Amino acid sequence: xxxxxxxxxxxxxxxxxxxxxxxxxxxxxxxxxARRPTPAREDGATVMAAxxxxxxxxxxxxxxxxxxxxGIGSAGPVDASAGTVSPVNVPGWRGFPLVAEVARxxxxxxxxxxxxxxxxxxxxxxxxxxxxxxxxxxxxVSTGVGGGLVLGGRLRSGPxxxxxHIGHISVDLDGEPCACxxxxxxxxxxxGPNIARRALEAGWRPGSDGDRSAAGVAAAARAGDPVALAxxxxxxxxxAAGIAATATLVEIEVAVIGGGVAEAGDVLFGPLREHLxxxxxxxxxxxxxxxxxxxxxxxxxxxAAAAAAAxxxxxxxxxxxxxxxxxxxxxxx
Length: 333
Description:
This is ROK family protein. This protein is α/β, with parallel strands linked by helices.
């Protein structure tokens, strides 16, 4: 076990638009960065070549000899127990053996895989808005809706690395079909593209900048547009129902929300907190605090590093300490 404060973790944050890499230190700081666009419409080998290019750039730095483990946070679904990924937005990867492919390239270092929502959760619990909280739900609300759980002070990623995936809790039993195959999922209502779609279908039109995204809807909502406000209110209700269900099931004390949609600020958080009072009514669920995430775009690499450090026993985050963010991740070795 390595515990020296100079130890680093190489971290990858893999999504449908970019592959970010960093060498992260024991204070959660990315010391070296690398980045490539994700060739999401290409075949699996081409996507892996982009991952390898990020790893190669990191490995060429003078700090690579300090790396003791590798962490990967990937768009999902992932299967940490098998070391495979099948991101919905990367069609070339279906059951792709990402852990084995990365392990081949990193000289025998242990490799840990978690879903991107779990990585964000690890980051926010280690260095962000959920720091010091024993029981938390952390969510990414963006193109999709993902999440992860901290229970009893530890990251609980589940056998396959997908626990806490709140985006696919159904909150509308007769709702619209979701891309996952179910109906009325939180993601189908609260993700950025669905906020924008619903506003456009209800008659909202973008302003002079032509921004048809959820950010454009948020700007209109801040200016008082009733259709834009209604679309964000609907998203907030879906999120509130999902958070309340989670609080009722596992007794969380805080829900941390990040991702692009969370940048809407009070347009989202105001109605979300109001609706949560309507849904989380039992005494043990009614005190859930809702907070914005703090780590922004670094959450993916910082969280992947935290998960790998916990598996490797680095920085006091090892699973044997009872205090870390580890647990439930898969090693490539």
